Amino acid sequence: METTLRGVGVSHGVAIGEVRHMGTAVLEPPAKQIPADEAPREQARARQAVEAVANDLIARGNLAGGEAQAVLEAQALMAQDPELMADVERRIAVGSSAERAVYDAFASYRALLANAGEYLAGRVADLDDVRNRIVARLLGVPMPGVPDSDEPYVLIARDLAPADTALLDPSLVLGFVTEEGGPTSHSAILARALGVPAVVALPGATELAEGTVVAVDGSTGDIYVDPGKDRRAELAKAAEERRAALAATSGPGATSDGHKVPLLANVGGPADVEAAVKAGAEGVGLFRTEFLFLDDSKNAPSEEKQVEAYRQVLEAFPEGRVVVRVLDAGADKPLEFLTPADEPNPALGVRGLRTLLAHPDVLHTQLRALARAAEGLPVYLEVMAPMVADRVDAKAFADACREAGLHAKFGAMVEIPSAALRARSILQEVEFLSLGTNDLAQYTFAADRQVGSVSRLQDPWQPALLDLVAAAAEAARAEGKSCGVCGEAASDPLLACVLTGLGVTSLSMGAASLPYVRATLAKYTLAQCERAAAAARATDTADEARRAAQAVLSGE
């Protein structure tokens, strides 16, 4: 008998297939004492395992490329964290085996994060995955992971680590469902990049029996268990209509009455460019530059290396718009040469622009490299700062851009509620705004984007978040300047219409989402989008906002 479950849809499309479960977690190592004279050998084993895991994560990143590469390189840095390694060696020195010392050191760090509510590189799913990989290597057992199967299947897991998500084979993994995670988790972002239908934050997902047939709707978040003939036909029809709409729509983004909404791509480096161009991106709305800095956590990349990488992306969009975000270090992207290791709460400490202003040489080198990379190219270069809090921040960034001789538009990301509330003040110093809805939601609701239990507060349909988007867009309109969205909210086709109705002037997303957003925008007029936005803001919950907007656009 068919039953319906509801999670959070994070990647478009429908998948129907049998359930296969992710391998079980690594067993807890026994707590046995070792003789004191074995401690040096055990410490060496631990160091070798850590390096092997870090190298494996980097190799997986190199294979995956793009955003996945940056995520996995960040995980590799986590594995090599000097404080964690020092803790492991201290535990071995007092009698723990290497595997037990690793297990306990990571458990201690995990508990610290959970109790303090911190938002660090040791995000829970990522941290657990690194621990499991090191312990498995030390125990000499295979690392549990994606199941072996000759037939396509729907993957079920408590959570998916980036190392597993990045290398999923879409020809075998029809879609995936997780019990944990949220719409802006690493796994959700990578699923969208792969074009694999996915649903996260589904309570009881791991209780689905192996071999059960499920239908996964990554757009709505619905999971149909043992779907009947009528349900399968309904989903197939919807999927075919979606494919037809995608095939029929091309060219620049616009509403049905001709209101232009440039559709841009989020890229994590040169490896993402091909997919963005193929999907018809009109430019880049968010060029994340962290990938260059993650290669070596102890030293900044040279100016020459930066020039080469930036130019590869700029050359791909002749006469297009490319918006570059300068280095966003700190919190979830710690760098040994930049970010302090002893901050009590790095998410609320020195991160983003604050980090760069504390290290002006790093900022100046990056800005100078961007200026050189753009020389002689017809590209429209725009450069923005992350984590801008107020006009003082905006002025400091604009002054740094001028000092570096950068001939480009200077902008500010709106990721902190204060920036949205005082957007008009910030726009006295910069020429455009870009809304990072992932962090803006996190800071607005005090809800870690990696914690499934608070995923409802990470939902970009939350009316309070829409209010902040509207405030920033209205300020930009009043100043005659632009205000785009580059957070994951832009990848939701229905929400893209609402954002357009709120006054957002461009939308940037992963390449896989561009066709869906383009086709949906083309179905509605600007006035319809504005009415849908007003209806969504008049509600009190994310679900109500979504339903209200849908009702307006469907003519109900």
UniProtKB/TrEMBL annotation:
Upper taxonomic lineage: Bacteria, Bacillati, Actinomycetota, Actinomycetes, Kitasatosporales
Annotated Mg(2+) binding sites: E415, D439
Name of this chain's protein: Phosphoenolpyruvate-protein phosphotransferase
Active site: H186 (tele-phosphohistidine intermediate), C486 (proton donor)
Substrates-to-products reaction catalysed: L-histidyl-[protein] + phosphoenolpyruvate = N(pros)-phospho-L-histidyl-[protein] + pyruvate
CC per GO annotation: cytoplasm
Assigned EC number: 2.7.3.9
Cofactor (UniProt): Mg(2+)
The keyword Zinc-finger is assigned to this record: no
Phosphotransferase system enzyme I N-terminal domain location: 6-123
Annotated compartments: Cytoplasm
One MF term in the entry's GO annotations: kinase activity
Catalytic class of the enzyme: transferase
InterPro entries xrefs: PEP-util_enz_mobile_dom, PEP-utilizing_PTS_enzyme, PEP_util_AS, PEP_util_C, PEP_util_CS, Phosphohistidine_dom_sf, PTS_EI, PTS_EI-like
Chief site of localization: cytoplasm
Function: General (non sugar-specific) component of the phosphoenolpyruvate-dependent sugar phosphotransferase system (sugar PTS). This major carbohydrate active-transport system catalyzes the phosphorylation of incoming sugar substrates concomitantly with their translocation across the cell membrane. Enzyme I transfers the phosphoryl group from phosphoenolpyruvate (PEP) to the phosphoryl carrier protein (HPr).
SUPFAM superfamilies: Enzyme I of the PEP:sugar phosphotransferase system HPr-binding (sub)domain, Phosphoenolpyruvate/pyruvate domain, Phosphohistidine domain
GO BP term (any one): phosphoenolpyruvate-dependent sugar phosphotransferase system
Domain of life (superkingdom): Bacteria
Gene3D superfamilies in alphabetical order: Phosphoenolpyruvate-binding domains (3.20.20.60), Phosphohistidine domain (3.50.30.10), PtsI, HPr-binding domain (1.10.274.10)
Family named by the database record: Belongs to the PEP-utilizing enzyme family.
Keyword set, alphabetical order: Cytoplasm, Kinase, Magnesium, Metal-binding, Phosphotransferase system, Pyruvate, Sugar transport, Transferase, Transport
Ranges for domain PEP-utilising enzyme mobile: 151-221
